[in-house]
Specification:
This protein is of the alpha/beta class. The chain is built from four helices and six strands, in the order E-E-E-H-E-H-E-H-E-H. The chain has a single domain, classed as 2-Layer Sandwich (Transcription Regulator spoIIAA). The protein is about 35% helix and about 25% strand. It has a six-stranded mixed β-sheet with strand order 1-2-3-4-5-6. It is globular. The chain starts with 5 loop residues before the first strand and ends in a 13-residue tail after the last helix.
């Protein structure tokens, strides 16, 4: 994996980069629902086991559903089991933010609003204050 953005081979609206050694950033664009859930879950599982830090950036996602939320919860669990970190980077798209708020995941996952915050070594869990 290089530092250059490349679409993941299975998911056309997913771009995986490695901006730093040991870090994988997964940028999600478009819609993420049950149609992409299995492939996304497999990708996130692999990344959370292989990288000390995985950042999932939903800034450019248009829509997410409960199957996507399930994938996030599982990725966070896999990362913790491997003593790795999983961080969700949020944008301001109302539909995505509302889904995350209603689900309660903003209180469970480590959430940040910027890439810089996501790459900070000790992002506290549920750092949603001010998001």
């Amino acid at each position: 994996m290089s530092g250059d953005p490349t679409p993941h081979s299975v998911l056309e609206d997913v771009v995986v980069t490695a901006p730093l050694d040991g870090v994988a950033v997964v940028e999600l664009h478009g819609d993420h629902d049950r149609l992409t859930a299995d492939e996304l879950e497999t990708l996130l599982r692999e990344l959370t086991l292989e990288h000390p830090l995985v950042v999932v950036d939903v800034t450019d996602a248009r829509f997410i559903d409960s199957s996507f939320l399930h994938s996030l919860v599982n990725a966070d669990r896999h990362a913790r089991e491997a003593d790795n970190r999983f961080v969700l980077q949020l944008g301001t798209r109302p539909a995505v933010r509302k889904t995350l708020e209603v689900s309660g995941l903003l209180e469970v996952l480590t959430c940040v609003s910027t890439r810089e915050d996501a790459l900070t070594p000790a992002s506290p869990r549920s750092s949603t204050g001010g998001l």
